[in-house]
What we know:
Pfam families: HIT. This protein is α+β, with helices and mostly antiparallel strands and 137 residues long.
Amino acid sequence: MSFTADPAFEAASVFTADWPLCQVRFQDDARFPWLILLPRVPGAVELEDLSPEQRALLSEEIVRAGALVRELGALREAPVDKLNVAALGNVTAQLHIHVVGRRRDDPLWPDPVWGRPGAVPCAPETRDPALAHIAAF
């Protein structure tokens, strides 16, 4: 069984890179710098589906993604005040971790971003430099 991303991820995010464990996707929502990490482990739904070594690597990749989200915020001249990290999986069961940069002046602060309508697709002049930065990180 080989790894494939759930098709639901194609609708709102863009593949940007493969890290040692995870596929890295850029959430196409101009309101937030937002990455999604998908561990490339076929059939993984819960953290317990990863080996101890994979869980340790996932933790390191979450920290790396947080640093990258902060850089994406800085590129937008909108420094991140707080990182939100979550593995919800209520809509898409495939194991994935959201790493979202939040600001006290963002449109949903202090509420969670999960399942909230109003996503605003990134303009190419914002999205393309962000994708290039992620690929080079």
